[in-house]
Specification:
The protein is an alpha+beta fold. About 30% of the residues lie in helices and about 25% in strands. The strands form seven sheets. Strands 1, 2, 3, 5, 7, 8, 10 and 13 form an eight-stranded antiparallel beta sheet that branches. A seven-stranded mixed beta sheet has the order 15-14-18-19-24-23-22, with helices on both faces.
Length: about 750
């Protein structure tokens, strides 16, 4: 995106000449990812944060939590019917007037959710109905775009009467409506701001290149996007502690629910000793333009802390954390503690949570207490506790007490407070009411923090672990409550794991180190794609950590670049989806465990799933869908893809996979955003291996694809493709050898 110079903009705004380009109005710090979120915002009724002129109806990488309004006058080069196309991430709307006035604006296209860059066929609403325009006629065009988080882009194309191609609207057909004095002044201010941001970005890039967290002094000067205040703001800051057990349902669900009820909620994977001292530096991610660097940020003052464990193997409450939590409550803070049920008394006595609860006169016991259909732990309480709820046999499962100036609530689990998507409306309402009642009571010992309530939120959590260690091209963040086995893993294995994934799947990484965030165990992880790329791993055991790291790293990787240094084309199943992630998770697990006969997390299991279901799963229509999950079970829709890839690897070796991605990048070099059909996908795969894979994929039950691909064109040459002799028998062992030159033709390992 080229920004036109201010001098040109101001000169043309005051003249009779039409300024070429598009007027962009940018609003920062608006939550949500739909156009309705933008237009409903109180900020939208005010002047935009930035006003600039750009040279085309397209842009990318503007950051997060923003809204854009583009306005331009288009001039039709010839008379006839025009069709307009819209693509964006996240939602957008395209409006066109019957003339050059806003009164005639009508919506002609829209994107719900998101599309790929330059991908105009994902949704029916992306394409307008034909619109008749007069030669030389000028028509007002407007685009509204809302970005939440993650990747972001927008583009508009048209099909003119004189061409069948979809092309970007040329700058020669675009002109900016005349600017008034206020707009010219705002544009001057925006240009000064843009210059300052350019300096900031350069400084941020220098820290990122060294793998350093941005110092607090620079953070204070940065123009960065944070999450806005919740509606009906209570002024109460709530810290959702995830440093002792990271759970998805709490990480995202509880925090979102709290914000919906007017509380300022922020999740944290840093130890409590790091975050409970107001003003102490905490590691966060900032949204700075298209970057999301890690930075030091002064910890907020908290009214309420929510913490807990349900798994006895979860990270411990260190003595420093226990002391920090004790002081926090005595000084007037409130703490909601989620518990769990130990297997026996020995486990109960050794459990870190119980050791922490002992100072408050409480414990979770092995005794099973039921509450309706839910099994919970009976609580052992001193006389200072007020029982709030009992199980069916009359033993306490929820209680509260005062502690110094503050208050504590101990609950049998987090389940009574989390309103899930499967809850009936009355159950969900009761859970929300209990959460609101509990937080209100806990916050009573300390005045609302009030003031600026914006809290960091980028990348799934707000606050990241406080400790770090460089392992080659990898930067690891971890909390000081991680066990010694995990620290040994950092020193011994993580660098090797990263190098191995890149050897199997060569890709061009950014100059800065790749970041791994080690969270408190429990299972799973997530990936962060904007620079710097990061993988968050939620596991206890070293082998599981390595496997999930490979999984999450794969989510952030695109295929080898073509001769122009670009990665082009997208496969119908998603080139960074769960199949790719599972493929590399299986390979890393096999590498470090030596169990190569597992064949990518036992991918042969799909055969048994299909046999039990009485039909074959159709990957062309059932990949990663809820319908497939109901028939084959969660994960089997990914597993079949791994099976297919493993069978191909059995014949061609590990070089086939990067070669497949490289061929696709070369094939669609002229159209980087191209979304392959299933026919194109399997043809690309066949070109990569040098044999026709269509019969194999048809034998798997894949519908809508042709029977044969006897020849194909690649690199200006026609390639003859004999049928690949691959059957539907069990897949072979994971192949851990290095890949060869993926730009060269393959030789089958078996004949």
């Amino acid at each position: 995106m080229r920004v036109l110079t201010l001098s040109l903009a101001m000169a043309l705004a005051g003249s009779a000449l039409a300024e070429p380009g598009v007027l962009m109005e940018l609003w920062q710090g608006i939550d949500g990812d739909s156009v309705a979120d933008l237009t409903a915002s109180a900020n939208y009724a005010k002047a935009s944060d930035e006003l600039r002129v750009i040279d085309k109806l397209a842009y990318e990488d503007l950051g997060n939590s923003y809204g854009v309004r583009l306005t331009t006058l288009i001039t039709a080069p010839v008379a006839g019917e025009y069709t307009f196309y819209l693509a964006s991430d996240d939602g957008s709307e395209l409006w066109l007037s019957t003339d050059d006035q806003p009164a005639g604006l009508k919506r002609i296209a829209q994107v719900s959710g998101y599309t790929g860059p330059g991908s105009y066929d994902d949704q029916p609403g992306q394409k307008s109905a034909p619109v008749t325009l007069a030669a030389g006629g000028r028509y007002l065009l407007r685009v509204l775009h809302k970005q939440g988080g993650g990747g972001n882009h927008l583009s508009v194309a048209w099909q003119t009467p004189s061409s069948r191609d979809r092309v970007a609207l040329p700058t020669s057909a675009l002109s900016v409506p005349a600017l008034n004095e206020v707009q010219r002044a705002q544009m001057a201010a925006s240009e000064r701001l843009a210059a300052e941001r350019a300096k900031q970005r350069a400084e941020v890039e220098r820290y990122m290149a060294r793998g350093e967290t941005i110092p607090a002094k620079l953070t204070a000067r940065l123009t960065w996007s944070t999450e806005g205040l919740p509606q009906n703001d209570t002024g109460i800051n709530v810290l959702v502690d995830q440093s002792h057990q990271t759970q998805f349902v709490v990480l995202w669900g509880l925090r979102g629910e709290l914000r919906g009820q007017g509380y300022r909620a922020c999740s944290s994977n840093a130890s409590l000793g790091s975050v409970l001292t107001p003003g102490k530096p905490c590691r966060v991610r900032l949204a700075v333009d298209s970057l999301e660097p890690f930075a030091w940020w002064p910890a907020a003052a908290w009214n309420v802390v929510i913490t807990g464990q349900q798994d006895l193997k979860a990270q411990v409450y260190t003595p420093a954390e226990q002391a920090a939590l004790d002081k926090f409550v005595k000084d007037g803070g409130g703490v909601l503690i989620f518990g769990g049920r130990p297997a026996d008394q020995t486990a109960a006595d050794a459990w870190s949570l119980n050791q922490m609860l002992a100072r408050f006169g409480a414990a979770c016991t092995p005794t099973v207490e039921t509450s309706g259909t839910v099994k919970a732990a009976a609580l052992k309480l001193s006389a200072d506790w007020e029982v709030l709820a009992k199980g069916d046999s009359g033993q306490p499962i929820r209680a509260r007490r005062a502690w110094g100036k503050g208050r504590i609530v101990l609950a049998e689990s987090n389940a009574p407070f989390n309103a899930g998507g499967n809850d009936k409306p009355d159950v969900a309402a009761a859970k929300r009411a209990l959460l609101r009642e509990t937080v209100t009571w806990l916050a009573a010992g300390k005045a609302p923090v009030a003031g600026d309530g914006k809290l960091p939120h980028i990348g799934g959590v707000g606050i990241y672990p406080e400790l770090q260690k460089r392992a080659g091209s990898v930067m690891v963040y971890y909390a000081d409550n991680q066990p010694p086995s995990v620290r040994q893993l950092i020193d011994r294995d993580l660098e090797r794991a990263a190098k191995q994934v890149l050897a199997w799947f060569p890709t061009k990484l950014a100059a800065e180190p790749y970041t791994i965030v080690l969270c408190a165990g429990g299972g799973g992880g997530w990936a962060i794609n904007p620079r710097p790329k990061a993988a968050a791993v939620i596991e206890y055991e070293p082998l599981s950590i390595l496997g999930v790291f490979g999984h999450e790293m794969a989510h952030t990787m695109t295929g080898p670049a073509n001769g122009q240094g670009k990665v082009c084309g997208n496969i119908p199943i998603g080139n960074q989806g769960e199949s790719q992630a599972g493929w590399f998770q299986g390979k890393l697990s096999a590498l470090f465990s030596g169990e190569t006969n597992v064949a990518n997390r036992n991918c042969n299991s799909y055969l048994e799933a299909e046999r039990k279901a009485g039909r074959k799963q159709d990957l062309a229509t059932e990949y990663e869908t809820e319908a497939a999950r109901k028939v084959f079970g969660y994960g089997n829709q990914w597993t079949k893809m791994w099976y297919a890839w493993q069978k191909i690897e059995d014949r061609y070796g590990p070089t086939w996979y990067p070669r497949w991605y490289w061929v696709r990048s070369e094939r669609w070099a002229h159209e980087p955003g191209h979304q392959e059909t299933w026919d194109e996908c399997i043809e690309t795969m066949s070109i990569a291996v040098g044999e026709d894979l269509f019969p194999f994929w048809r034998s798997l039950g894949t519908s809508g694809i042709r029977e044969r691909c006897e020849r194909a064109t690649f690199g200006g040459k026609v390639i003859e493709l004999p049928i690949a002799p691959i059957d539907n028998g069990p897949a072979g062992n994971v192949q851990l050898g290095p890949i060869g030159d993926y730009t060269k033709p393959l030789t089958p390992l078996t004949k």
